[in-house]
Design brief:
By secondary structure, the protein is α+β, with helices and mostly antiparallel strands. It has 11 helices and 9 strands. It has 2 domains: 189 residues, Orthogonal Bundle (Triger factor/SurA peptide-binding fold); 92 residues, Chitinase A, domain 3 (Roll).
């Protein structure tokens, strides 16, 4: 099963590799892991990157530009920056011990996938992303390479993880509420922008035309591909009130006599069968439960593995004495 990349590139939360240079003096160390030094440059670059990432997340969430970060958040980011550098050193040494490498071809594919999935293949968006996180393309390639290495370690560590039928069944029985299907009525609709067109469609329906085919031909809603099917609708469904009122008045097989106007346009609504409250049967949800439990177990397994590396490591923090 394809693994999710551990660190979230879309939010620019990535580990930063320091460039090659001369050996720093002792007072330029932020710490060390099993004898391998963490330079202040590495640590400070990571800290700066986390600040940029924090601002990006906050701005994406609120839509407001973040100019300053509060002192308490800065302290948390300082701690996170050091912890990240420790885990970087631990995992890169683990990769070396396991003989794990990443080819240029693998790296190119990963970067292209990132551009496509997160930036719509826009070079302008890519340049803006790099500027926001304070990296040039070479350093970004280093970041991606390390993420791929970590992903390969995760693959190896979790290779034997599996979920039994008993675990899946137990989860299903303990969480039946999650699989409850509410009572309601199946609703279909055709949405158009023009009232005249809506009336023309109604005339075709009254003359015996197929609702599903007309939905596919005329509807501007995303449900058009499925014949206008909106699923089971009841009083708690989050549709605009005008639509909901009209839909819930219909009996099975009935179509609204006139187009229903809402802020989205003009709707022709059809009711399907009524459905009593029910619970999805085990077989219909078995695969989705298995995938969920598999992913959760893999994450726990890898987190426990990394925590084990950390617990066995000789970690020294020089930041308090070298600030």
């Amino acid at each position: 099963m394809k693994k999710n990349i551990i660190l979230l590139l879309a939010l620019a939360v990535v580990l930063f590799l320091a460039g090659c240079g001369s050996t720093p003096s002792a007072d330029e160390y932020a710490g060390e892991v099993n004898g391998e030094k963490i330079t202040k440059t590495e640590y400070q670059e990571r800290f700066a990157l986390l600040q940029a990432s924090y601002k990006m997340r906050q701005e994406a969430y609120s839509g407001v530009t973040v100019d300053e970060i509060t002192d308490d958040v800065l302290q948390e980011l300082e701690t996170q920056a050091f912890d990240d550098m420790v885990y970087q050193k631990l995992l890169m040494k683990e990769a070396e011990d396991r003989g794990i490498e990443v080819s240029d071809e693998e790296l190119d594919i990963a970067i292209n996938d990132f551009k496509e999935s997160q930036l719509q293949n826009s070079e302008d968006a890519y340049a803006e992303f790099l500027a926001q996180v304070g990296m040039d393309e070479e350093k970004f390639r280093e970041e991606m390479k390390m993420e791929l290495i970590i992903s390969k370690i995760q693959d190896e560590v979790t290779a034997e993880v599996s979920i039994s039928e008993e675990e899946i069944k137990a989860f299903y029985e303990e969480n039946l509420e999650m699989y409850k299907q509410p009572a309601g009525i199946q609703i279909y609709h055709i949405l158009v922008d023009d009232e005249e067109l809506a009336n023309q469609i109604l005339d075709k329906l009254n003359s015996g035309a197929d609702f599903s085919e007309l939905a596919k031909e005329y509807s501007t809603c995303g449900s058009a591909a499925s014949g206008g099917d909106l699923g089971i609708v009841n009083e708690t469904t989050s549709f605009v009130q005008e639509f909901l009122d009209a839909a819930l008045k219909l009996e099975p097989g009935q179509i609204t006599e006139e187009p229903v106007k809402t802020e989205f346009g003009y709707h022709i609504i059809k009711a399907g069968d009524r459905q009593e409250e029910s619970i999805s049967d085990f077989e219909s949800v078995k695969n989705s439960i298995m995938l969920q439990l598999q992913q959760e177990k893999e994450i726990r397994t890898f987190n426990d593995f990394v925590e084990g590396l950390n617990n066995k490591a000789d970690i020294k923090d020089y930041r308090d004495t070298n600030k």
